Amino acid sequence: xxxxxxxxxxxxxxxxxxxxxxxxxxxxxxxxxxxxxxxxxxxxxxxxxxxxxxxxxxxxxxxxxxxxxxxxxxxxxxxxxxxxxxxxxxxxxxxxxxxxxxxxxxxxxxxxxxxxxxxxxxxxxxxxxxxxxxxxxxxxxxxxxxxxxxxxxxxxxxxxxxxxxxxxxxxxxxxxxxxxxxxxxxxxxxxxxxxxxxxxxxxxxxxxxxxxxxxxxxxxxxxxxxxxxxxxxxxxxxxxxxxxxxxxxxxxxxxxxxxxxxxxxxxxxxxxxxxxxxxxxxxxxxxxxxxxxxxxxxxxxxxxxxxxxxxxxxxxxxxxxxxxxxxxxxxxxxxxxxxxxxxxxxxxxxxxxxxxxxxxxxxxxxxxxxxxxxxxxxxxxx
Length: 382
What we know:
It is a single chain. The protein folds into 2 domains: 19-182, DHBP synthase (Alpha-Beta Complex), CATH 3.90.870; 189-278 and 315-376, GTP cyclohydrolase II (Rossmann fold, 3-Layer(aba) Sandwich). It contains 16 helices and 13 strands. The chain has helices at residues 19-35, 58-67, 78-85, 107-114, 136-145, 161-167, 175-179, 181-187, 242-246, 254-268, 279-282, 285-296, 301-307, 318-326, 339-347, 367-376; strands at residues 40-43, 48-52, 73-76, 96-99, 152-156, 171-174, 189-196, 205-212, 218-225, 234-239, 270-276, 331-335, 351-356. The strands form 2 sheets. It has a 7-stranded mixed beta sheet, with helices on both faces. The chain has a 6-stranded mixed beta sheet with strand order 4-3-5-2-1-6, sandwiched between helices. It is globular and about 65 Å long. It starts with 18 loop residues before the first helix and ends in a 6-residue tail after the last helix. Residues 1-12 have low confidence and may be disordered.
């Protein structure tokens, strides 16, 4: 037989991906496109074309114009809107919309509108209010998933926007899927790898990795001894902190809390530290650095986050509860100063039978940071 006529063996049937995985994949792909400065179609009753103000460049603005039915407005979270519009806004709203004059519809002015640490605009442009689109909350949420400053250009989509997206290799995502993202991420969280990793402070330890299907985000559990054999082992929820955990930054107490927790668990013979990919209380490393810059100008850690357009705490503690359940733990003693963590875990089905204090003395640099955590976040540092 002529080799060119040889029949290839049938390929095994590939099982379809679960719907949640497909939704998560689309959400992360759309968020990635916004990070790259490309527009995304947000599907819903009144579809919007979105472009992140932080990453908007000439190409992205040109693509947006091809997909949009009308000029874009600027969507901002309320606290950021107050600074940009120079007047109070209602705090209960998900977003505020403003008309943009043509001279501001270019990369540098848009970055200044989105980022309070960027060079300010010359003069004081007066932006007029615009109608807030029905999908505004989903638009802001999508930027937050991408760890972008949540200020976004939004325009009504052309009727043929979907076909134009295909022609231009751009992406779309459903607004309802974006709003359901926190729960969907938890539902698809899976344990994917584990290995023994002896630590200086805890030689009898192993690291277990978790990942949500359709997502590249990974959370880790540092398991010391055999906590599953203990009635209520010591547990800490620790959000990753590159500057504190790795570099030894004095601006926070994260590094001390991390290593102190591991030592204490080793002394008890068992425990779990969940190392959660939620840098800066969920705003990401780059935005945390921006918040630091604002703190250097006089804001505290809570107000700095809010001026950037983020909430005081954007973490999803359902992830932590799911990881504990998959490790076989439903009763814990929580090593924390944050009462919100106790409430969150209990609401997610984990019985918190006790709180163990975990405070460290100020170091001369983080004194105001710790005072703010006590006064404005309710942390128990006494």
